[in-house]
Amino acid sequence: MSTATPLSGRVWQQGRYETLAMLRNGEQLVLMVVLPLMALIGLTVTPFLDGLGPNRVDVAAPGVLALCTMSTGFTGQGIATGFDRRYGVLRFLSTTPLGRAGLIAGKTIAVLVVLAIQVVVIGGIAWLIGWRPSFPGAILGLVLLAIGAGVFTALGLLVAGTARPEATLAVTNLVWILFGVFGGIVMPSTKLPSQISGIVGFLPSGALGDASRAAFLHGSLDVQAAVVLVVWGAAAGLAASRWFKWN
Amino acid sequence: MLRTGSPCLEIEGLIHDVGPIAAEGGRMKRVLAGVDLTAHAGQVTVLLGVNGAGKTTTLECAQGLRRRTGGTIRLLGHDPQTAGADLRARVGVMLQDGGLPPSARPIALLKHVAGMYRNPLPVDELADRLGLNEFAGTNIRRLSGGQKQRVALAAALVGRPEVVFLDEPSAGLDPQSRQVVFELIRELRSQGLGIILTTHLLDDAERLADWVAILDRGRIVAEGTVAELLGGASQAARRLTVRGPAGLDLALAFAGTRPLVQVHESPAGHYTAEGELTTAHLAALAQWLDARGIMPSSLELGSRSLEDVFLGIAEASAAEDSLRAGREKETETA
Q1: Are residues B225 and B246 in the same domain?
Q2: What is the mean pLDDT of residues B58-80?
């Protein structure tokens, strides 16, 4: 008889533990809730997004939720994993019945749970200021956000598993700001300078922003954006499993 | 549970290369060059070696944390590199650097780890035993080295393992905690666990080991029980230490006594006579000192220590290496 807790139990246990660790981290909460909220408010009181939808919050909210996905999966989980690696936590946990696969699964669950909390908090505030996506559009949008969470978590783990934790901290924060401002995630490519508007659709940030807006705003699937997103996810996943160093 | 005395870990011809190392012209570096080691249930197997000898690498290969370059490893009958959760559940690991998340609290972390096992030890009892309750509310980041060691040990034991790997378990421990940890290790042994630990402290090995394997430059250079390594059953005194005034020619005291002994003074006023000592040597020394009116401040008899064995082996292996290097150079020039 096995003396290990069954796989699903181990993964849930790790997911719960990682979720609480993320929620207890003050700086991460700023990145995961406060900054996206500021972006939401900022974009609804300024005229940057005018002309793209019935009102500003309808265009702003899907992009801000995409930004949340990047905060949690890429920057949040990337930094946490980088330091876990430094302190040998990854190695220790991979000697327990949890194992490496269980550890990654637990981290992914934590990202999805935190994202769900962000959707409730930030989506709820957007709703209060007038956001009214269609029901099918919202369902499609949530599915795409979950896929985006997987893509950005894979990218975050790729950085965390190949760079030192200080470098991971710097890179994931810097990329978060660059993608957040110029990456087409909250600002659609049509509103960006012409030099970059042509390429942002091929970035994971632009693809998730476009896909999220198409779903929540028009209830439609932006096939090109979805394909770009899935390709990034597959590439990051393969690269991470190839180059991720556990110690 | 395994029968006490049956092998729980069998390592044969273990080779591990790392690299390529840029500083060595992009060559691979051989860290383990064919390690053979067997550990048994109900015994403490000590892997002894200086820093960099390959102790941690050997353990990491046995734990499945590193992919080996060559050789075979059977841990409880399975290859740790391909085995799954069922094997990991039967093996406890304490890493050298602890592997504990700094922002966690000790008891909460132990409960989390315990959740990975179907039938873990009660966390409260384990915490009590290892004295973790005195800092239960403190983040691991703020614990002393010895406190962290105790938490890591608890985390290795919470799943009721059959085999435990302890990498430098006494590092950073104060004498009391060391006593607690050693007692616990002996108790685990009597319960039939196979314990494999590394240390560079000879004292640890002398106090705990049922079997000692000395690792030097990626090879086991000697192994056996402590008594075997010390030269079999002969426990006759081999060493006499005298402390007194500096600059005495103590060798003269033993000049007329056989067998001959070697005397040296290091540091000043600290004399050591080594050889097959007899009562005749003691009488000669007492007479010599009495004639000069010198009363030593300390006089101590001892047998050969593990340290002597260890240093002797390290020296011999270094000499062998330089000889081999010399020969290779000759071959190259020829």
Answers
A1: no
A2: 95
Q: What sign for the dihedral angle of Cα B123, B124, B128, B133?
A: positive
Taking contacts as CB-CB distances below 8 angstroms, the residues of chain A near B119 are: 3
B249 with B127, same domain? Answer: no
pTM of the model: 0.84
Residues of A in contact with B148 (CB under 8 A): none
Which residues span the domain enclosing B32? 7-229
The tokens for A193 are 């300078």
Examine the domain organization and report whether B191 and B167 are in the same domain: yes
Residue B245 lies inside a defined structural domain of this protein: yes
* Domain boundary pick from B209, B229, B249: B229
At A120-148, the pLDDT tens digits run 999 999 999 999 999 999 999 999 999 99
B2 has a pLDDT exceeding 50: no
Quick check: is B224 in a domain? Answer: yes
**pLDDT tops 60 at residue B232:** no
Q: Are residues B71 and B114 in the same domain?
A: yes
Residues in Cβ contact with B318 at an 8 Å cutoff, skipping those fewer than 6 apart: none
Per-residue b/e over A212-230, b at no fewer than 16 CB within 10 Å?
A: bbbbbbebeebeebbebbe
Residue of A27, A92, A94, A242 to mutate, interface with B, max B Cβ within 10 Å: A92
B229, B213 Cβ separation under 8 angstroms = no
Count of domains observed in chain B? 2
DSSP B219-282: EEEEEE-HHHHTTTT-----EEEEE-STT--GGGGGTTSSS--EEEE-STTEEEEESS--HHHH
Q: Are strands B7-21 and B27-40 parallel, antiparallel or unpaired?
A: antiparallel
Residue B75 belongs to some domain of the structure: yes
Q: Is A99 on the interface with B (CB under 8 A)?
A: yes
Find the CATH number of the domain harbouring B63.
3.40.50.300
Which chain B residues are Cβ-neighbours of A98 within 8 angstroms? Answer: 85, 116
Which residues of chain A have a CB within 8 Å of the CB of B104? 21
Residue B278 maps to a domain: yes
Q: What is the count of residue pairs from A and B with beta carbons less than 8 Å apart?
A: 93
CA-based nearest residue in chain B for residue A95: B88
Residue B332 has pLDDT above 70, yes or no: no
- Does residue B213 sit in the same domain as residue B245? no
CA-based nearest residue in chain B for residue A102: B85
Q: Please say which residue of B229, B252, B278 terminates a domain.
A: B229
What's the confidence (pLDDT) of residue A190? 85
Same domain, yes or no, for B255 and B149? no
